[in-house]
Amino acid sequence: MAARVFFVGATGHIGAALLEILRAAYPELSIVAIVRSSSDAKAINEAYNGTVEPLLGSLDDFLLLKKQASEAQIVINCAPDMGLDLGLSAILSGLSLSGHDRRFYIHTSGASRTWVAPDPTHPGSRIWHDITDVRSLPPTATHAVTDIMVQSANTASVHTAIVSPSFVVGKSPSKTHKPPIIFPDWMHVTRAAGSGWTIGPGANHTTFVDTQDLANLYLLLVKDALSIIRDGEPAAVRPEVWGPEAYFFGDTLEISLREFTEKHLLPALKRNGAGHWVQDGEGGGIKELMLEDVVDCIMTRVGGTEGANLWSRHIAEGFGISMRVRGRRGREYLGWKTSDGVDLDEAVRATVDEIKRAGGGVNSVCE
After folding, report:
1. Residue 81, in any domain of the structure
2. What is the pLDDT of residue 367?
3. What single DSSP character describes residue 263?
4. Rounded CA separation 341/337 (Å)
5. Residues linked to residue 255 through DSSP beta bridges, in sequence order
């Protein structure tokens, strides 16, 4: 009997990239993907010819989440975890009730778990390693609440792993979230400023992970889980891969925000039909913006609700703080390999296309 997978976030930027390679690698899997709309369900059916079952629902459908998790052997959650506490509780509760001998939960967190007191004038330089530093991650940072929930859910039968990406950049087959999550805001501020920009001098170093590299990390976790399910040997569950210590940073490239903007982002804009967004294409220079200016600028794109305001600040702080992580755990225990760099052209092209479809309006508030 084929193993059953319950997939949350399958239509998102990361989830769609993973679902594509997961279906190709394991066509025998029984995959149920929760989707929020009939159009998402249609896209899943068209992409996978009925071999992935779309299920209408949301992260607020707690009974549905609990039921589906209770029937699965592997649950993959690629949805953003901010505000997911109750939905996550339902998923973990369902897994605890499952009759399967071995159950696996793969959770998506984020490397902003490492952020402490964002201050663009002192961006910090600590490098966080996912083998040696799991126990010292800040307990009050973003993602901490859900991370701790997942780490506490491990039992003799339920095994968890947390994937914690840095800034995700690259190519995704998603129909609704083709640009990486940070890019619409980044490009909105770029267009408003009319140039490349940084918060303060831009000396803060940050880590990027390519979308396809990240999807392959998840795939390796699924591969390991399937080998244990098929083998049925409890001793095969390695604590380095599953359990409270199983925390996997995703990283492909580390670079300062100023260097990334000057040497990578501005040339990519020119190559992909958006050089007119900045002065003289590649040669427009870099504006040093204040954090609050960037927050206000992003808010003009996402709206003024309380949730949007919190998200705007979170994204803006990310552009001004160091986020230096090393994914040694995936490389050492799963054989994870990464590419030489991130697929920046694809990310820019997808964002340019989305802005054109939306009409291309922008408020120039970041002068």
Report:
1. yes
2. 43
3. I
4. 12
5. 206
In a domain, 21, yes or no: yes
Domain containing residue 56: 4-171+210-251
Residues 166/323, Cβ–Cβ less than 8 Å:
yes
Angle at 178 between CA 172 and CA 264, to 5 degrees: 80
- Average pLDDT of the chain to the nearest whole number: 89
Q: Give the tens place of pLDDT for each residue, 256-269.
A: 999 999 999 999 99
Domain tally for the chain? 1
Whether 91 is covered by a domain: the verdict is yes
What pLDDT sits at residue 314? 84
Q: Which pLDDT value is given to residue 121?
A: 54
Most distant CA atoms of the chain, gap in Å: 63
Residue 282's pLDDT is 45
Examine residue 300 and state whether it is found in any structural domain, yes or no: no
Say whether pLDDT at 123 is over 80.
no
The CA–CA distances, whole Å, from 100 to 5, 309, 358 equal 12, 42, 46
CATH code assigned at 98:
3.40.50.720
